[in-house]
Amino acid sequence: MLFTSSSCGLILKKPVWLSLIMLFFRLQGSTGQITVTQTPSVVVSELNQNVTLNCSFNHSPDHRVTRVILYWYVNGPEGSDVNIYPHGSEEYKERLIVLDKEETPRNMSIILLGVTWKDCKKYQCMLSYDKAGEPERKRGQGILLLLHDSMVFDLAPRSVSSLLCSVKVSPDPTFRLTVLEDGVEVCSTQNDTQAPHAITLSLHVPLHSGRKYECQLNRSSELILSRTYFNQPQSLPEPIFLYIAILLVPFIILIIILTLYLVGDRKGYRGRGKK
Ligand SMILES: *[C@@H]1O[C@H](CO)[C@@H](O)[C@H](O)[C@H]1NC(C)=O
Ligand SMILES: *[C@@H]1O[C@H](CO)[C@@H](O)[C@H](O)[C@H]1NC(C)=O
Ligand SMILES: *[C@@H]1O[C@H](CO)[C@@H](O)[C@H](O)[C@H]1NC(C)=O
Ligand SMILES: *[C@@H]1O[C@H](CO)[C@@H](O)[C@H](O)[C@H]1NC(C)=O
Ligand SMILES: *[C@@H]1O[C@H](CO)[C@@H](O)[C@H](O)[C@H]1NC(C)=O
């Protein structure tokens, strides 16, 4: 009956067509791709911190994945791959924590301890496994590690009228340092120099009393760190004046009372004189 009515037929066509596609995707999902993903693709950390580098392995029971072996690489000179796990150098053996050392690891992420400038590299995980008995290997797209030191934001050396904001960062043209005065951007800098380890971003701005200053380090549109500087208006003598004023109050009241008394007294004499 439904199919005899053309209008109903038209309405029905779409859901049938849609549900077929949905069914297709559901089937795809269950036997979908085996993937190795690394997110986020860039990690920004402060110097000397412990950094987690993510790697996740997605597969379903249908893939019959066995004999999983985890490897991690960094990009070496001239695009070469340097293994840091499991055959890493002594340095990496001490500083690299593998979260799961089981024969079939579940968590493929690693933690790099006490990161320094020379750790600013791209870290790629690779998984070697058997898929239904056939050997296969897959790599993640890699995570780029970028670092920054702490930010200094204070009066410029030998100056009382200018501020200096500076911070050391890994060479990356998307780092941007900005100084804001009362929330309004006054100046900003980027540096696309390709230095081997680190570069310094710095800004000088004139200081005006009573204004609030903020220095921000951003990367792309993300705020990495910020510091504020609040310059108090020249108010040091004010409390002293206040104390003097408070001390003067009883004295002034005394003078007023005395004056009133004397004036009143003189009026009294005059009155008596007239009589
Ligand atoms: C980094 O990890 C080590 C060892 O787990 C720990 O002793 C240290 O406190 C950590 N450092 C930071 C900055 O979290
Ligand atoms: C690492 O990956 C897990 C799972 O995908 C996610 O929950 C976590 O937020 C990631 N860690 C970082 C530092 O992005
Ligand atoms: C692996 O461990 C790290 C650190 O504990 C955690 O951030 C991450 O979310 C874990 N990944 C998965 C897939 O559970
Ligand atoms: C960029 O950084 C380098 C190294 O710190 C420095 O020599 C250069 O002057 C900087 N360039 C700009 C435009 O600030
Ligand atoms: C830095 O990033 C934060 C967060 O996205 C944003 O609110 C702020 O305006 C950015 N600062 C600059 C100077 O672009």
TrEMBL record:
Cellular localisation: Cell membrane
One GO cellular component term noted in the UniProt record for this chain: external side of plasma membrane
Organism encoding this protein: Albula goreensis
Alphabetical list of InterPro entries matching this protein: Ig-like_dom, Ig-like_dom_sf, Ig-like_fold, Ig_sub, T-cell_Activation_Regulation
Key words of the record: Cell membrane, Disulfide bond, Glycoprotein, Immunoglobulin domain, Membrane, Receptor, Signal, Transmembrane, Transmembrane helix
Residue ranges of every copy of the Ig-like domain listed in the record: 40-141
Stored SUPFAM superfamilies: Immunoglobulin
SMART domains from the UniProt entry: IG (SM00409)
Signal peptide location: 1-32
Record's protein name: Ig-like domain-containing protein
Membrane topology (UniProt): Single-pass type I membrane protein
BP-aspect Gene Ontology terms: cell surface receptor signaling pathway; cellular response to lipopolysaccharide; immune response; negative regulation of T cell proliferation; positive regulation of T cell proliferation; T cell costimulation
Transmembrane feature ranges: 240-264
Lineage: Eukaryota, Metazoa, Chordata, Craniata, Vertebrata
